[in-house]
What we know:
single chain, alpha+beta, N-terminal domain of TfIIb, 5-stranded antiparallel sheet, 5 strands, about 30% strand, globular
Amino acid sequence: MEARLLDILVCPVCKGPLVYNKAAQELICYADKLAFPVRDDIPVMWTDQARTLTQEEIDAR
Length: 61
């Protein structure tokens, strides 16, 4: 995923910053505890496609 794209993307729920997890191919919003998938280098920013972060993932941050 391009760094330039990461600079302009925000969480669709809270408009906060996202963190890119390259290994999991996800954009993570820690404020809303959501992980948005990245498929074929395209972020899927729909809340119904996001998964909820586990407490372990939040604590590991």
